[in-house]
UniProtKB/TrEMBL annotation:
This is Guanylate cyclase domain-containing protein. It is found in: Cell membrane; Membrane. One of its GO terms (biological process) is sensory perception of chemical stimulus. The keyword Ubl conjugation does not apply. The lineage of its organism: Eukaryota, Metazoa, Ecdysozoa, Nematoda, Chromadorea. PANTHER family: GUANYLYL CYCLASE, RECEPTOR-TYPE GUANYLATE CYCLASE GCY-10-RELATED. It catalyses: GTP = 3',5'-cyclic GMP + diphosphate. CDD domains: CHD. It comes from Wuchereria bancrofti. It is a single-pass membrane protein. One of its GO terms (molecular function) is guanylate cyclase activity. One of its GO terms (cellular component) is plasma membrane. Gene3D superfamilies: 6.10.250.780, Nucleotide cyclase. Keywords: Cell membrane, Glycoprotein, Lyase, Membrane, Nucleotide-binding, Signal, Transmembrane, Transmembrane helix. Residues 61-191 form the Guanylate cyclase domain.
């Protein structure tokens, strides 16, 4: 009887250890997913059981990057090839963002949204963080080859804008850190009214960038923007320091 009890205890210990390992693994996976869905600081607060209070931010830069002529891929590639391409492209963008004080807000179809200065404020650096991310993304895409569509060249449209926003966590089961306000809409319009392989900003954003001699911009001219009317816009061409090197 004693030997049977010892054997039972050992089996029970093994089962408990196995179940504990599975629980730890599941928790780690949940934590990784949470950090993919939310900025790290917000994810940490939620894990700690803290309430995320929605708040206003006076100055944030929001950017959008969209893949041009994405329908060509949809028509000439298999669904698996399209998904593989998007994963690879967006992972490349993610790696660029990791080197900056910014984060990926979300991806919707072929559109990638990013922001800086939220939820952690960084003074006036946010506009320069997004500007340099945009330049790096464009540089990467210019050399990108899609083996499944050799006649198609990856091109992107990028637009960004700085200004005030409101931000907060939406949802309980699948929480998302969402940004709201005219700045978000304006940034989206800068992207949608942009040309392929260009980075477009409004005059107010361009003036801030031009105060820093690192950035080369040229005036595009007047663009009619839905909900805004006629807007003076500029192309962000390059980081001058890169050219000198």
């Amino acid at each position: 009887m004693i030997k049977m009890n010892e054997k039972y205890a050992q089996e029970l210990e093994h089962i408990v250890a196995e179940r504990t390992s599975l629980l730890v693994e599941a928790q780690e996976q949940t934590d990784r997913l949470l950090c993919e869905m939310l900025p790290p600081s917000i994810a940490a607060q939620l894990k700690a059981g803290e309430t995320i209070i929605p708040r206003n931010y006076e100055s944030v830069t929001v950017g959008f990057c969209q893949i041009v002529e994405f329908m060509y891929l949809m028509e000439h590639c298999t669904p698996a090839q399209v998904i593989s391409f998007l994963n690879e492209a967006f992972m490349t963008f993610d790696e660029i963002i990791k080197c900056h004080d910014a984060y990926k807000v979300e991806t919707t179809g072929e559109t990638y949204m990013m922001a800086s200065g939220v939820p952690s404020e960084n003074g006036g650096r946010h506009i320069f963080e997004i500007a340099e991310i945009a330049l790096k993304i464009r540089e990467k895409t210019l050399a990108y080859k899609v083996t499944a569509a050799p006649n198609w060249h990856l091109r992107v449209r990028i637009g960004f804008h700085c200004g005030p926003i409101a931000a907060g966590v939406i949802g309980l089961r699948s929480p998302r850190y969402c940004l709201f306000g005219d700045t978000v809409n304006f940034a989206s319009r800068m992207q949608s009214n942009c040309e392929a392989n260009q980075i477009q900003v409004a005059e107010s954003t361009a003036k801030i960038l031009m105060e820093n001699s690192k950035y080369n911009l040229t005036k595009r001219g007047v663009v009619h923007v839905k909900g805004k009317g006629d807007v003076n816009t500029y192309w962000l061409n390059e980081l001058i320091l890169n050219k000198q090197q």
